[in-house]
């Protein structure tokens, strides 16, 4: 069963925010914020739409490093070397403490190995799902310790920058991941798998993920 969580979706572009509102309108505990990272209020965890090597020198990753300091990037790179032998697989995510009690965690969640187009793939879904699982597993491990729980997790538009994924498709795949977090299966069978795969790969009857 999923643990309670508030999802914030941020982007400075009103078109992306409109796509978020449209795709998430039927889903609970979601706030869309038209904002830059630097202007966000305090929150528990920010998700970086990263690359597999923890090189956080462009886009929103660079803003995160400017805010928290280069030591954060160095720690993330050391964890990638220690945990993944230097290359974090897509579909994984880990939490790194920031040392700032108002913004205590960053989730490092690659959407791509190296910068380049991921349009037409399910990598936005995979990175969003991995991030939600990392937060879920953190909260399970701190069950009963309210002060250590993550209550607000903030996502940028995963894959919308260097990944080149259209805004509506970014919002669609992220919304599917959030729906799957809120409503996990109660048994594993092929009917469940087919429903899940169709939700990820199809939009309005058209296959959009190959």
TrEMBL record:
It holds the Pfam family Macro. It comes from the Bacteria. Gene3D superfamilies: Leucine Aminopeptidase, subunit E, domain 1. PROSITE patterns: MACRO (PS51154). SMART domains: A1pp. InterPro entries: Macro_dom, Macro_dom-like, TFA_Chaperone. Residues 17-210 form the Macro domain. This is RNase III inhibitor. The lineage of its organism: Bacteria, Pseudomonadati, Planctomycetota, Planctomycetia, Planctomycetales.
């Amino acid at each position: 069963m999923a643990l309670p969580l508030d999802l914030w979706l941020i982007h400075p572009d009103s078109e992306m925010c409109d796509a978020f509102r449209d795709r998430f309108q039927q889903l609970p505990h979601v706030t869309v914020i038209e904002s830059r990272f630097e202007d966000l209020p305090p929150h528990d965890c920010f998700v970086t739409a990263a690359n597999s090597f923890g090189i956080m020198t462009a886009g929103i990753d660079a803003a995160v490093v400017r805010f928290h300091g280069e030591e954060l990037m160095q720690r993330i790179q050391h964890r990638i070397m220690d945990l993944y032998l230097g290359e974090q697989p897509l579909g994984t995510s880990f939490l790194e403490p920031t040392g700032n009690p108002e913004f205590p965690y960053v989730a490092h969640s690659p959407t791509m190995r190296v910068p380049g187009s991921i349009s037409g793939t399910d990598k936005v879904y995979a990175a969003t799902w991995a991030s939600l699982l990392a937060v879920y597993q953190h909260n399970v491990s701190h069950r009963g310790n309210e002060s250590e729980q993550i209550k607000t997790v903030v996502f940028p538009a995963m894959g919308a920058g260097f990944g080149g994924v259209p805004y509506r498709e970014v919002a669609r795949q992220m919304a599917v991941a959030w729906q799957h977090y809120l409503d996990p299966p109660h048994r594993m069978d092929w009917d469940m798998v087919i429903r899940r795969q169709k939700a990820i790969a199809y939009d309005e009857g058209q296959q959009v993920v190959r």
